[in-house]
Design brief:
Elements (H helix, E strand, L loop, with lengths): L1 H7 L4 E4 L7 H6 L26 H18 L5 E5 L15 H15 L2 H7 L27 H29 L4 E3 L12 H5 L1
Parallel strand pairs: 1-2, 2-3
Length: 203
């Protein structure tokens, strides 16, 4: 209805994908999609940006609604573009510390370093007995750990940024496939925001 009103007055429309604000019913049905803070507590519904970008269920749900919207509006003459999600990383939401993130981070570290000897060397793991003998031993830099190895911390920031970029890319791919003539963009948090590699996000 709103698009119809705008169209009557010659106003073109950019639609936002609604993934930054999963509704209460969805959060209740899929509690595992809720982000876990550095303190180990799972966030509750009531704000926005409460989702975990790594969670496979939320990625599938996000792609589902984006594809449904794209199919519905692909040929609407007033719709000319899309904004993906909203302010990635706002409200300290880039990094999640849930079990899905830990498993994904361990796999990410294995791909990055190839073997544990290389990881232990790169992280200076001999200090404080931090040598790892199994990928499953790699922790997340949570408050429960106290002061984390700064190399672990840095790599976790890199991992979390890559998860956000991949999450955005899935929406880009869906929109490009279904609405190839539409523009696709997102809005960022401004200069100085360091939680996400904006060069990668912008690409």
């Amino acid at each position: 209805q709103a698009i119809g009103v705008l169209a009557r007055y010659g106003i073109a429309v950019i639609l936002g994908t609604p993934t930054a604000t999963p509704p209460a019913w969805l959060c209740q049905r899929y509690p595992e999609i809720m982000r876990v803070g550095r303190d180990g507590r799972r966030v509750a519904f009531g704000m926005r940006r409460q989702y975990c970008a790594t969670n496979p269920a939320y990625r599938a749900l996000s792609r589902g609604i984006v594809e449904a919207m794209a199919k519905h509006y692909a040929d609407h003459p007033a719709v000319v573009g899309w904004q993906i999600d909203n302010e990635f990383g706002c409200h300290d939401s880039t990094r999640c510390y849930c079990p899905a993130c830990q498993s994904a981070f361990q796999a990410w570290a294995q791909r990055r370093y190839g073997n544990l000897a290389a990881l232990n060397d790169a992280w200076g793991a001999r200090f404080w007995s931090h040598v790892y003998t199994s990928w499953s031993q790699i922790p997340l830099p949570t408050d429960a750990v106290g002061v984390s190895n700064p190399c672990l911390e840095l790599d976790y920031w890199r991992f979390a940024s890559e998860q956000t970029v991949a999450y955005q890319q899935a929406q880009v791919d869906a929109l490009r496939a279904l609405c190839p003539e539409h523009s696709v963009t997102t809005n960022m948090m401004g200069f100085g925001f360091q939680d996400i590699n904006y060069y990668e996000l912008a690409r």
